[in-house]
Amino acid sequence: MASFKLYDLSHPLTSDTPIYPGDPRYTADRFTSLDKDGYEIHILTFGSQTGTHVDAPSHFIHGGLTIDKIPLSTFVGPAVIIDLSENIQAKQMITWSDIEPYEKELKPGVIALVCTGWYEKWGTEEYYNHPYMMKDVAEGFVARGIRTIGVDFLNPDETPVDGKSEHGFQFHHVILGAGGVIIENLTNTKPLIGLPNVHVSLLPLKLEGIDGSPIRAIAWQLN
Question: Is there a contact between 93 and 131 (Cβ–Cβ < 8 Å)?
């Protein structure tokens, strides 16, 4: 059997997992125990947009597909690693000119992963001051047939720490409005930079009628 290295791109779910302001937090409460009941079960509580997760179109779009209706092929495939990690700044606006060097690699069926290295700030207040992508980036992806986009920060749109953002959720509306999906809070993307033939699996739980799902994201290289 051929062996290959797997890259874990998911943050752990804990009580300290950063969430979008106002979203429900993750909790895990013991329901039964080995000592008392002979087996262990926990009650898990979390929002559909918790931790490393995927947004379905229905997250923002009336009549958009829910997570259980999206073809599995959307979540598995070859990836283009867009390296924006050098000198990335807090609240930096990412525009299409930043993505343009990778344009020849962006073709239908490819999964675009935007690597900024911001995941290294996971668990700090600075994580909420992440860079974010402008509307023209979403339009550029859609125009080139890209329907699966992942980022290694909290939100491809600006997260308004003070409750206000002049840009709103433009990136979400363009991508999800085109029937695409968005993966948020990826981690460990830097080791993928420069690797050839990277493939990823971003499979969600099959949650009927729900707007998104936590995922266990992984990457590997095809020989």
Answer: yes
The answer, yes or no, to whether residue 162 has pLDDT greater than 80, is no
**Helix H segments across 22-119?**
34-37, 96-99
Q: Helix (H, G, I), strand (E, B), or coil: what is residue 123?
A: coil
Does pLDDT of 56 surpass 70?
A: yes
Superfamily classification of domain 7-11+48-221: Putative cyclase (3.50.30.50)
Per-chain mean pLDDT for the chain: 96
**pLDDT tops 90 at residue 223:** no
Q: What is the pLDDT of residues 87-108, one digit of tens each?
A: 999 999 999 999 999 999 999 9
Phi–psi pair at 95, nearest 5 degrees:
-115, 175
Would you list the domain boundaries of the chain?
A: 7-11+48-221
